[in-house]
Amino acid sequence: MRFVVILVLLLTGCASTTLNTESEVDRNQFLLLPEYMALSMGSDAYRQEIKKAEENNDLNVDEDQVLRVRKIAYRIIDQVHVFRDDASDWNWEVNVQQSEQVNAYCMPGGKIMVYSGFIEKTDATDDELAAMIGHEVAHALREHGRERMSTAFVQQVGLIGFAAYLSNRDDSGLSKQAALQGAALGATLFFALPNSREQEREADKIGLELAARAGYNPMAAVSLWRKMDALSDAKIPEFLSTHPSNENRIEDISEDAKKINHLYLENKIN
Ligand SMILES: [Zn+2]
């Protein structure tokens, strides 16, 4: 009986996570995994990454670089309220990890990590950094990680097993064992599962709007992804494994950037 109730609740959990804005992203989403679980998995997985980086003396090593990344990221974060009412109150974190990897991510609930390899190998301008951070923040606002985890759960354990997993809680919340499994699974799923093409397109559109509203030139996304493309010829598997790209992508970004350029002109700093 408990399973049935949970299944009914789960199956009704499909809606759009963000408000419909100028970027016109309003797809209904497959969100079986409850939001609090995605948030707790994201937060635990982020803690693990921070701990590892600290142990290796790789966390926030270059002070100027950290200040620069945080300044840009928090201007983007100042605009998230446009896309959803609750996101300004998320417990946002912005850190830089020393790494050769050309990558960045934003885990569920606003946990941002930028790798030094991305900044250095692309020689990113402030506008290009804003484009990258905007794209990653957009994934978090749209809860793409939660969507990917929902799909993976159902594929792996089926709906019944998923309901059983969820019902494995005591009254004070998740049992300790389930929470531990959740953190490990969250990290695995977050890093292993690629975003779908549709999710990439949404993150591109919302990312452009976020950057423009924060006063950064949205056309920088075009130069950024050209640089990324050039690097990908020399292999940047880590980024492309979670952010699938295609030939038309830069053209689409360029069109979308023109459409919201007026937001940049209204908000630009200089
Ligand atoms: Zn992406």
Structural features, described:
The chain has one domain. It is about 60% helix and about 5% strand. The chain contains 12 helices and 5 strands. The chain has helices spanning about 1-10, 35-55, 65-75, 115-120, 125-140, 145-165, 175-190, 195-215, 220-235, 235-240, 250-260, 260-265, and strands spanning about 95, 105, 110-115, 170, 175. A 3-stranded mixed β-sheet has the order 1-3-2. It has a two-stranded antiparallel ribbon with strand order 4-5. The protein is globular. The termini are far apart. Zinc ion binds near residues 200, 203 and 243. Zinc ion binds next to α5 and α8.
Question: How would you briefly describe this protein structure?
Answer:
With 270 residues, the protein is mainly α. It has helices spanning 2-11, 35-55, 63-77, 116-122, 126-141, 144-167, 176-192, 197-213, 220-233, 237-242, 249-259, 261-267, and strands spanning 93-97, 104-107, 111-115, 169-170, 173-174.
